[in-house]
Amino acid sequence: MHIVIDMQRVFAEETVWHTPSIRDILPNVLDLCEAFKGRTLFAKFMLPETSAHAPGRWQTYYERWSMLTTSQLDPAYQDLVAPLAALSQPETEVEKFTYSIFKAPGFNERLKADGIDQLIFSGVETDVCVLASVFGAVDAGFHVVVASDAVGSSEPVAHQAVLDHVLPRMPDQIDLATTAQIIARQV
């Protein structure tokens, strides 16, 4: 299963969370979606209406990022970027309110019920939501493949550190491969 993390307008467009690398990785994400047609899910980072609608320390987080609550930002910014929105269906979208897709209710159970044992990750941000989701997948026992040229971040140094230093520490659980390598071996 291919998991696309947070390829949404809120990160692609001119917001305080703008992640310029989206435009660079989008062709590779699209190639993976094509290669794994019918086996791709799209994670969406959902925003609360106000900081008061968020639980625990997420309230403090959204007090700082109040301009990104849906009371101040058009909720359409939560939509997938146009090329991916055209590929998605409601049943292929997984809404999450935290960094990891594995915190979305029923997500792990859905994968297990479908007999999935390997996950391929693409999307943003390498050092936040992708990393949290990768760790969630490892913790749940999945074999993980990170498409190194289909992940990106607004912090290039942190992105590279994750690819060069963090993920290689777990070679028994996580593989790094380029989009072309993944497609060639149809992992």
Q: What is the CATH architecture assignment? A: 3-Layer(aba) Sandwich
Overall pLDDT score: 97
Q: Report the portion of residues in β strands.
A: 15-25%
Could you give the order of the helices and strands? EHHEHHEHEHEHEH
Please estimate the helix content.
25-40%
The CATH topology is what? Rossmann fold
Q: Supply the CATH superfamily name.
A: Isochorismatase-like
Radius of gyration: 16 Å
Spatial strand sequence of the major β-sheet: 3-2-1-4-5-6
Which structural class is indicated by helix and strand composition? alpha/beta
Describe the protein in words.
With 187 residues, this protein is an alpha/beta fold. The chain has a single domain (2-46, 79-185), classed as Rossmann fold, CATH 3.40.50. Helix content is 37%, strand content 19%. The chain contains eight helices and six strands. It has helices at 9-12, 21-35, 58-64, 82-85, 107-113, 126-139, 156-166, 179-185; strands at 2-5, 40-45, 93-96, 118-124, 143-152, 174-177. It has a six-stranded parallel beta sheet with strand order 3-2-1-4-5-6. It is globular and about 45 Å long. The N and C termini lie close together (9 Å).
In short:
By secondary structure, this protein is an alpha/beta fold.
Secondary structure: elements and pairs:
Blueprint: E1 2-5, H1 9-12, H2 21-35, E2 40-45, H3 58-64, H4 82-85, E3 93-96, H5 107-113, E4 118-124, H6 126-139, E5 143-152, H7 156-166, E6 174-177, H8 179-185
Parallel strand pairs: 1-2, 1-4, 2-3, 4-5, 5-6
